[in-house]
Specification:
about 375 residues, alpha+beta, 13-stranded mixed β-sheet, two-stranded antiparallel sheet, 13 helices
């Protein structure tokens, strides 16, 4: 069958783009569909990223029926900060057909080539500040909040198109123990003796504390692969989405002499709730949300960073010591540390120090597109 690629511009086409995964994964017990209502906002100019970047959405039709989707993403901030002519694809979903996936990827490749890009990389949904990569190991358990999920053959589709590994991202899982390792407690005590303190965020001053996170994050992650700083507009948008999920006792700020130097944010795994809502918001699913939100037992370490000049001073150990006490109080059973760059040895060592184990691996792909046109 001939594959047709159309750009999703109209309201009905954008809705089809958003709702494609709902039907595609309807029989997959591990998939956690995002609320359609939220996705309609996320794919509109209410999302600052959309306004600041060049984003196009495409649908693949096979025999007149939707068979896949993809987004083409040109982020001027990435080009400027990373000093490379790289564009991205994201929000990829596709049936197990290399003809369909090839048509989708070719469309993005040509879009990016026409925009002067030399490298095509992805998936990024929309940037490294959000979901990245295809799952390549760990298909036996569901994804946690704001982590990717896909079928195993996606990686074969990438290889068939000539994509190769750009970077692997790791997720570690920690089963809660009654006590932290002695080494962690000893290092945390050293930090306390140096005058480092930890406090919880204040939801009444949520934006002020999120500004602290922005400052710490942009400083801590500046040298990391693919880093893009969080702008004020993106912070306001993301904070609005995170505020209903944030638990003050699990969102911590480390300070030295009143100066914020570290940040740790653990978010309950609301994917557990979303799996029961089917992407819909109505009276029945609201009742389900109220019921299942009380049964969440997993956390994801979503927000984390320590300013470079305060690393190796026990700040991380002290944050985890305070967090561990509050986690036990909340009755949570597991924590996912994600995502972590495969070559971020210092953070990997921290995970190992806690006894966390690598249980999922994700891959970002890339392809040189200079001189390529299909």
């Amino acid at each position: 069958m001939k594959v047709k690629i159309i750009e999703a511009k109209t309201k009905s086409d954008i809705n089809a783009f958003i709702e494609f995964p709902l039907d595609f994964y309807k029989n997959d017990r591990l998939y956690a569909p995002q609320l359609t209502r939220d996705m309609k906002v996320h794919f509109s100019e209410k999302n600052p990223f959309i306004k600041e970047s060049e984003v196009k959405f495409f649908l693949a039709l096979k025999d007149g029926r939707p068979a896949g989707r993809i987004a083409s993403i040109l982020n001027p901030q990435h080009i400027q900060i990373q000093n490379e002519k790289a564009g991205f694809f994201g929000f990829f979903e596709c049936i197990n057909d290399s003809t369909v996936s090839g048509a989708l990827l070719s469309r993005v490749q040509n879009e990016l080539k026409n925009q002067g890009m030399e490298t095509m990389r992805g998936p990024m949904n929309f940037s490294t500040n959000e979901e990245c990569g295809f799952l390549i190991e760990g298909f036996d358990s569901p994804p946690m909040l704001m982590m990717p999920y896909n079928l195993p053959y996606y990686n074969d589709l990438m290889t068939a198109f000539g994509m190769s590994k750009s970077k692997d991202l790791h997720a570690y899982i920690y089963d809660m123990q009654e006590e932290l390792p002695e080494k962690v407690l000893r290092v945390a005590a050293l930090a306390e003796r140096k005058g480092i303190t930890v406090r919880t965020i204040d939801k009444k001053n949520f934006m002020a504390d999120m500004k602290i996170f922005q400052n710490v994050y942009n400083s801590a992650w500046e040298k990391n692969w693919g880093f893009i700083p969080i702008s004020d507009e993106e912070l306001a948008y993301s904070a609005g989405r995170l505020k209903p999920l944030a638990v003050p006792d699990l969102t911590l700020i480390a300070e030295k002499d009143g100066e914020p130097i570290g940040f740790l944010g653990l978010i309950p795994d609301f994917n557990f709730v979303l799996r029961h809502m089917g992407g819909r918001l109505n009276p029945i699913t609201i009742l389900k949300a109220l019921y299942y939100s009380r049964k969440i037992t997993d956390l994801r370490l979503l927000l984390y960073g320590i300013k470079p000049e305060y690393r190796n001073r026990g700040v991380d150990a002290l944050l985890f010591k305070v967090g561990h006490k509050n986690i036990k109080k909340g009755g949570y059973k597991r924590i996912e540390f994600s995502w972590i760059l495969e070559d971020n040895i210092s953070v990997i060592r921290i995970c190992e120090m806690f006894g966390a184990r690598l249980y999922k691996r994700y891959r970002v792909y890339e392809k040189k597109i200079s001189g390529v046109m299909e």
